[in-house]
Amino acid sequence: MTIAHPSDDALEADVDRAVRALAGRRLAVLTGAGVSTDSGIPDYRGQGAPRRTPMTAQTFLADEAARRRYWVGSHLGWQAFSAAEPNDGHRALARLERAGVSTGVVTQNVDGLHLRAGSSRVVELHGTMRRVLCTACGQVFDRRDIGARLERENPWLAVPDEVPLGPDGDVEPDAAAPLAIPDCTVCGGMLKPDVVFFGEFIPAERFREAEQIVASAEALLIAGSSLVVNSGIRLVERARRRRLPVVIVNRGATKGDARATVKIDGGTSEALAHLAERLA
């Protein structure tokens, strides 16, 4: 199948319309998995995205065999995930913040690439792969330390040359391998990556931080999100109620297209770079 991409002229025309909608306004930014595809991290629902069955919080907590499978895949994927580098889209958004144009970034991604690109006000709605939490006492661990413990306690756990990476920094292991899972060194409790699993709710305080970024803005820029996840569409609704301009940059349809002032149907890196050049 051939995927049609906008021509340079069409992209320029769409960017012109977006600039007219956004110029002179402070922007809140909402990003999804599509903003990181140019960094080698696959999208959930974009063209060619593999069908995935995400681990639910209930299964992780209740099923030891499933938990072992998760940690095998999560560790292997995290090694490749953590090696990903920010792309032009991440850097463009950091430039908008430095110029005082952006009030901050709300991201559905767990890859940390906005922070690494230089954005400072970032709300990671779905958490981050950088940290691991104890589900019993709440102790926080650096993911690198947990990774080192996993490899010390499981010498067979080596990183393959090519890992079929998932959007959340995991892979799908072929089978459940015997695995010693590190526990909390404070209380002996169960450890879990600091990410919102399927079936979990975003912490209320974190969502309030995201709402504050939108509330302090005069427009909303959405990049790389299909807005299928409820948290994203709720923020779009906040903007719509205030009659803010909404610009969406995404390859393919989104649930927010009907609410958009301008829709740029294309890749985020190029479009965001053009927008930053004109707005910053």
Annotate the secondary structure layout:
Blueprint lengths: L7 H15 L4 E5 L25 H6 L1 H18 L6 H11 L3 E6 L5 H5 L4 E3 L2 E8 L5 E3 H11 L37 E5 L8 H12 L3 E5 L6 H12 L4 E4 L12 E3 L3 H12 L1
Helix pairs in contact: 1-9, 4-9, 7-8
Number of helices, counting only DSSP H or I runs of 4 residues or more:
9
Largest sheet, described in full? Answer: 6 strands, parallel
Report the strand count. 9
Write the element-wise H/E pattern from the N-terminal end onward: HEHHHEHEEEHEHEHEEH
The CATH homologous superfamily of the largest domain is named TPP-binding domain
Estimated radius of gyration: 19 Å
Structural class: alpha/beta
CATH class identity of the largest domain: Alpha Beta
Q: How many domains? A: 2
Mean pLDDT: 88
Globular, elongated, flat, extended or rod-shaped: what is the shape? Answer: elongated
Our measurement of the CA-to-CA distance between the termini, rounded to an integer number of angstroms, reads 37 Å
The order of strands across the largest sheet is 3-2-1-7-8-9
Q: Which residues sit in consecutive blocks of at least 5 with pLDDT less than 50?
A: 1-5, 45-50, 161-165
What does this structure look like?
The model is unreliable at 1-5, 45-50 and 161-165 (pLDDT under 50). This protein has two domains: 8-41 and 86-126 and 203-280, TPP-binding domain (Rossmann fold, 3-Layer(aba) Sandwich); 50-83 and 130-195, 2-Layer Sandwich (SIR2/SIRT2 'Small Domain'), CATH 3.30.1600. A six-stranded parallel β-sheet has the order 3-2-1-7-8-9, with helices on both faces. The protein has nine helices and nine strands. With 280 residues, it is α/β, with parallel strands linked by helices.
